[in-house]
Amino acid sequence: MTRRMRTIEHWIGGVATAGAGTRRGPVWNPATGAQQAEVVLAEPADVDAAVTAAAAAYEGWSQTSLSRRTKVLFAFRELVNARIDELAGIVSDEHGKVLSDARGEVQRGLEVVEFACGLPTLLKGDYSDQVSTGVDLYSIREPLGVCAGITPFNFPIMVPMWMHPVAIACGNAFVLKPSERDPSVSEVVARLWQEAGLPDGVFNVVHGDKVAVDAILDHPGIAAVSFVGSTPIARYIHQKASATGKRVQALGGAKNHAIVLPDADLDFASDHLVASAFGSAGERCMAISATVAVGPAADALVDVVSEKAGKVAVGAGREPGSEMGPVVTAEAKQRIEGLIGAGQRQGARLAVDGRGLVVPGYEQGFFVGPTVLDAVTPEMDVYREEIFGPVLSVLRADSVDEAIALVNANPYGNGTAVFTASGEAARRFVRGVKVGMVGVNVPIPVPMAYYSFGGWKDSLFGDKHVHGPEGVSFYTRAKVVTSRWPHVEHASDASYHFPTAQ
Fold it and tell me: How far from each other are the two terminal CA atoms of the chain, in whole angstroms?
């Protein structure tokens, strides 16, 4: 008897639905290499149905009191927190990351939910009494309407939680288009919102590929689009959505550098470099993919990093003891291994080669082992491209100023770090690099939820970072009210000249 393939459906207006289309996409188990489900791929009619449901729900939700919104958010927070292990397992099975990493992803998403629970404070306006005789002035922030999120495969629960809790808390309705590579967790999140008491239609999930993305960008009923993904797609989304009058925040790719100065503790620095380069198989927008060894630190750093890279326990995400899982698809594995080979052909020294790794019991899995390339230069493909895999490139510089110049010459400006015992060098680095997020002896400087996340240069299109105060600003717009309540017996002071304070 043939077992029927599990189908992952849209969530529109509070119910699961296969929608109008007949197209389906495969969802793989990266550890086994086997297809485990299929996901429905939306047509424009499905996006329109989601927007219609969201627009109808927005009318009531936007007028719901802050107290009521907060109660729903607190209930949602408790439900997610109670099911961390279940959610992490779903993420691990479809993305491939190890369970501990997946739990950490859920936890960082929860921090944004907790931030959103305090939004009544952040939504407070300003009030100025008696700005003119009998005239008061005040400002309020109002929601935009229907907002959309287009999110990547590498953090299938955390990155959407950077968006929808803040948008919903501000009074908006939301349509999420998650990655079709690991879509299951988004439907579970939708059910948790419903269980928390969120009115049906306020949160919707539409699965799909470019057809769904373009339908979102073109839809006149969507007021704002948030995106996290590669730089070419971020640029495309920013241009296309902006052309239709939408507000856009589009976070692009990264080439995150870690600078290691000669006075750094090499044991400490190498531990963190290995963890940040190879954790989640390097499939993080904040992964360290390039390290710049300054002066005499270079040879010793390469030796110790290579030794520790060779000891990383690679295995299936659910296997106890696994420190790094597979990459997400067979295509990703092929691309990463191709870039490793290109780096070697272009003159880099292959200190640790992760190609051809076979994990016993998971011989068909999409595994690439930790890889270290030494003597990399900025002209090489392995440096110019965002690899998004477990590959660490080592470059060399003679001084901290040369290292800063190297970072600034890169088109990306997402995250960077410096390892040093010198406060003066660290301060010079922090002030000198043209990057949005900087770590000092912290290799993955992801801000807490009450700060905003985002890079500079080709790592961000639009003027607002995600979550935190800038997220609140993005999902609301300001209204300023000038108010007067004159006594009826007083004469009018209307005038044809431009109004001035009196």
Answer: 86
